[in-house]
């Protein structure tokens, strides 16, 4: 009871735990569920749920949330390795870097799964450092200081020294 009282006044505990504690303390005083819900600004379902959990599991029942329903998210080690290897070592077709969507399509996984794997491995394929080569020969580059645009009059022989 002292722990519940401490939690119900708690400033350093999560609010959900404060509400659960107050619910149990009021229930211990034989207050009806409808009245508890009204006082705490919750629903009767909330009060019933936490009364039942406390009756079954005592303090541990209200301290921790129960596992949520649904299928657990499973990513196999092979899938993780495939995403990591592809992101690190394979050049995407017709692109300079992988996006999450193109990588997901390439490895056959959902975009959210690929995003989770990349984030877990701190991989950011869109931030890879690369450099580009120019297609022009260096002597005919527009920004070359040597070809500063010398002109000649018609009929004379102009020479460009590089």
From TrEMBL:
Residues 133-155 have a biased composition (Low complexity). InterPro entries: Homeodomain-like_sf. Residues 131-162 are annotated as: Disordered. This is Feruloyl esterase. The lineage of its organism: unclassified sequences, metagenomes, ecological metagenomes.
């Amino acid at each position: 009871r002292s722990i519940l009282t401490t939690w119900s006044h708690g400033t350093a505990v999560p609010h959900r735990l404060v509400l659960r504690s107050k619910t149990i303390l009021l229930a211990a005083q034989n207050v009806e569920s409808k009245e508890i819900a009204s006082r705490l600004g919750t629903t009767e379902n909330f009060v019933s749920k936490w009364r039942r959990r406390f009756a079954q599991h005592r303090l541990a029942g209200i301290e921790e949330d129960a596992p949520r329903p649904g299928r657990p998210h499973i990513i196999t080690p092979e899938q993780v390795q495939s995403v990591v290897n592809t992101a690190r070592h394979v050049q995407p077709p017709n692109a300079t870097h992988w996006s999450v969507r193109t990588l997901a399509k390439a490895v056959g996984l959902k975009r959210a799964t690929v995003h989770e794997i990349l984030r877990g491995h701190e991989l950011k394929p869109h931030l890879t450092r690369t450099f580009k080569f120019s297609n022009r020969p260096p002597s005919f580059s527009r920004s070359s200081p040597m070809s500063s645009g010398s002109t000649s009059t018609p009929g004379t022989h102009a020479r460009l020294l590089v």
